[in-house]
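Changelog note: in this version the structure field was regenerated for every chain. One regenerated record is shown below for reference.
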Amino acid sequence: MSTKKISNYEADAIAKVIANKAFAHLTKTYREKLENLAMETYRHVETLFDLNLLVEMNFGYKANSIAIDVLNSAGQCHTVWTKKFEVAVLVNTPAYGNIKLVHEHLFDQIDDVLTHLNPINEKRNALQKELAAQLSGKTINQACKAWPEAADIIKAHFDITSEPMTTPLEELLARFLPMLPAPTEG
């Protein structure tokens, strides 16, 4: 393996993968609900105005996702991101930011999901921070030996494969070293 030291940036990237994997079973349902609410929000925005027409008029551009600020009547805001690949449209309004939609019911639904998801994310972020602190400055060898259950994630980050050798070493040596008689004592 490698004696290369893991930088802060690399440690954080590895820690993020480990933490996300560790918490995936807790966040999956809430993330799916948020994605569904984001799509519902997008569909609602589509009923209000023709986003494709805005693109044709050069007021926007096509993208892979769109951010929509969902507000309640008190002005509280949650931002949702849709992932409507190759179909979503971002309105090009840098002065105004994201599309804003006042919708009490959607806001309350998003708020309910975030009320459950945010404490889990705080714990996940704390784990990520601690993992990154433990990894930073260690060598790849040290990290893999200390955390064998995370070794595949660490190796994948550095593109290190653990594939077995295809030819035994003895066979390679025999093929390339000339066959000489055994040394005699003398």
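Spot check on this record: Residues 6 and 137 are 5 Å apart (CA to CA). The two ends are 42 Å apart (CA to CA).
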